[in-house]
Structure formats: structure tokens, C-alpha cells
Amino acid sequence: MTWNNVLVYSNRDDILQKIIQKNKENDSCIERIEQLKQIEKDIKSRLNIIKVKQNKYEKEQVTLSTNEFWDPNSYNERQVSILWQTHELNFKRGMLFLKALKVHKVFLHKNYNHLKVAITMLKNLRSININIEENKTNVKRMWKTLHLIFPVMSTTFASFSSMYRGIDTDFIDYLFVDEAGQASPQQAAGALWRSKRVIVVGDPIQIEPVVTLDETILADVQKKFNVSEHFIGPTASVQTVADHANPIGTYKGGGENKERIGIPLWVHRRCIEPMFSIANEIAYENKMVLAKKDVGAGEWYNIIGQTKQAQYVFEQGEFIVEKIEEQFEEVENGEMPSVFVITPFTAIRRELISLVNNRLGKKIPHIKKWSLTSIGTVHTFQGKEANVVYFVTGTDEATDGAANWSCMKPNLINVAVTRAKKEFYVVGDLKRFKKKRYYETVVNKIQYYSNNKTT
């Protein structure tokens, strides 16, 4: 074998090795291509699933946690939306609740003879001597049974101590306090002590607690017992205490007026415009969001006169009588119109009820019943609502100090205007009141939406 032959064989081996290597690389590429095809197939399958879900979400109007949702410009949408909620989920949740009620009904029916003992005890609760330990134990068992029969029970702070007489701490599973801005912290002490958990709902920018003690005495109590003004003071309420105790919260206002609040519920669902914008500007720093964007009716009736009784203006009373008569004419016989007449002053309330009853008593059979529940001061209407509200300001130049009192804070006007679901009318001296704080906003918003209402 010559040297040339050796070189030929060597080159042939190198070429064969390269061909083998290339074949391996080719096989690897083919295998990788097949893998990529399978990945592509899987991705297409997933995309189809996502598309199906997307179409379902669109039909269900579900809100997803997207960058757009959390964008600062999407504030209104975030307030009115609930993440991940679907119509199907809400429907099934509702059906589950209805079926649970059926189970509850069957349970009560099957165990009637055992359960009626607790109801009998409740009727005779006052006569039970709870100083006897056995009786005290039986009362606790009675309440456990009653809580099973009636999962939600309603009472007031004034009745709580007698109602749950003899009941110790941490007995009630959940305590719900509504209109908590109206109650002083001390009123809730007994109910809170007897409860494991509490949910407090209220608005400190509506009616504040009625405090009869002088502020000087309250200050002395604070100093003597080293108690914060958040717990005892003219503006302290169950709501403000809960706001400060809540680890989750925010701040409203600024500077000296900066105030901590708990979890704000910014979505407003009762009123439409112009009532919403009035309340939003005077009380909530325009942070509220209107759920139902619609425009109702509003007007300031410029009725002027001299006061006759305290803040009562006779001409305004005459005007209210005419409007109430018109409201009753618009409803069918025997029905009551959804109308409130609200005023800041008890003298106006008293005179209006008397005038309405005297003038309309013979024409409208049920007017006395209506007037007792539908004419009153702002304090008596918190938590209530009507389609139409007439707000009577009363006062004249001589009693203008009372008018200034009504707008020292936004609370009174805020409550009055947010009682109206569809229509809000003010009866008073326009020239004098439009210069006053908060009333100026009422005038401007009524005028704006009257001029810009679309049909």
C-alpha cells in the first residue's frame, strides 16, 4: 500500500464521519421540528381555549385584572366593578342561598316542638331570674336556638342591654352596626363586648351623634381619664372609632382637616343628578362615583317672607301645601306619594304639619298619616329615601344666624339632598342663601343640570 492510498482512505473516513454527523444533526433538526409542531399545536389549542373563555367572559361581562383596569385613569371603572364576578357565578350563588333557605325551612318544620320552647322563653324573658346560674345557662341556650331560627335579628343600642340581659362576652358571632355615624361610642360598648366580630357601616359626614354634655365637661373627662377625643367628644361616634381601629383605610381632607377613615364605599346608587354632584362636592371631595348616570329634576324656588314662628316663613308653608296637593293628585286614590318635606328646624316642621293637615285634611283622607312620617327635620330622615324631596330653609334677615348654623358643616345639607332619588327642590330666599357655604354649591349644581339636561 502506497502513501497515496493511505491518504485516500483517511480522507474517505473523514468524509464518512462528517456525513454521519450531518445525518445526526439532520435527525435532531427533524426531531426538533416535530417538537415545535407539537408545541405549535398545543399553543393553538390553548389559544382556542382562551378564545372560548374570552367570548364567555365577554358575554358574562366579567372584569379582569388587567393593566388597563389598574390604570389611574380607570378610577371610576374600578369603583363600580368587581373582579372575577360573572353572571353565572352570581346566579349559582343566588340559587345556593335559596336552597339553603329551603333546608332551613325543612329543619324548622321537623324540629318545631323543640324550637318552640325557645320562643316561649323569649316571651317570658323579663320574668326569668338570671341570678340563678341554671336560668342563666338556659337563657344562653335560648338565644343560641333563636339565632338558629332567625339568623339575623334587629334591635337598637337602647334595647340591647335588656334584650341580651345576662349574656356574657363573645356570645354573638357577628354584630352589624348600621348608621354608626349617629351613635356615640359609649352606646355601643355593651353590644361590642358581647360580640366576637363587628362590621360597622356609617357615614361621619351625615348626622352626628346627639351630645347633650357641654364640650368643657367632655374635655375634663378626657383629661382626667387620659382618653382620646376619638372616644369621647362632640363628634366621636361608633364609626369614627371603627375608622381609627381599622388597619385598612385612607385619609380624606388635608392640613388641619385631614381625617382618617376606614374602607370607603365610594359608589353611590341612590341618587341621580343633580343630587349626586351636590353631595359629592360638599362632603366627599368629588371622590364618589355615580353608578347610574342619569339626570333628574331640581329647582330652587325663591320664596321670601318674614318669619312668624322662630324660623318659619308663612309664604313658604303656603307654597309647600300647593306642591303637596299636586303630588297627591298625581297618584291613584289611596296611595301615598313618594315625597319628603325636610327642614333643618323643628319649628318649621311643626308649623308645616299643622298647615298641611288643616288645609288638606278634608280633601285627602290619609294626609295626617302621611304628614307625620313625611314632614320632619333632617335628623329624622337619615337612612330613608323618597323620589321627591322639598327642602325648606325658612329664616329671614332677622334669623339669618339660624341659616348660618345649618351650613356650618356639610352634614345637614348632605343628608337632606341625598334623601332624594329623582327630584330635589329647595324652598327659600335664593339671594341670601346662594352666598352661603355649601348652599352656593346647591344653587350652582341645580342651575347647571337644569341648563344641560338631555332628554
List keywords for this structure.
455 residues, alpha/beta, five-stranded parallel sheet, two-stranded parallel ribbon, 17 helices, 13 strands, 50% helix, 13% strand
Can you tell me about this structure?
The relative contact order is 0.07. β1 (172-177), α7 and β2 (195-200) form a beta-alpha-beta unit. This protein has helices at residues 3-60, 75-80, 87-110, 112-123, 133-149, 157-163, 189-193, 215-225, 238-245, 275-283, 314-329, 346-360, 367-374, 400-406, 411-417, 430-433, 439-451; strands spanning 172-177, 195-200, 250-252, 259-261, 267-268, 289-290, 297-302, 307-309, 312-313, 339-343, 375-377, 386-392, 420-428. The chain has a five-stranded parallel sheet with strand order 7-13-12-10-11, sandwiched between helices. The protein has a two-stranded parallel ribbon with strand order 1-2. The chain has a two-stranded antiparallel ribbon with strand order 3-4. Helices cover 50% and strands 13% of the residues. The model has no long low-confidence stretch (mean pLDDT 90). It has 455 residues and is of the alpha/beta class. It contains 17 helices and 13 strands.
Task: Give the helices and strands, then pairings.
Elements lengths: L2 H58 L14 H6 L6 H24 L1 H12 L9 H17 L7 H7 L8 E6 L11 H5 L1 E6 L14 H11 L12 H8 L4 E3 L6 E3 L5 E2 L6 H9 L5 E2 L6 E6 L4 E3 L2 E2 H16 L9 E5 L2 H15 L6 H8 E3 L8 E7 L7 H7 L4 H7 L2 E9 L1 H4 L5 H13 L4
Parallel strand pairs: 1-2, 5-6, 7-13, 10-11, 10-12, 12-13
Antiparallel strand pairs: 3-4, 8-9
Helix pairs in contact: 4-5, 10-15, 10-17, 11-12, 12-13
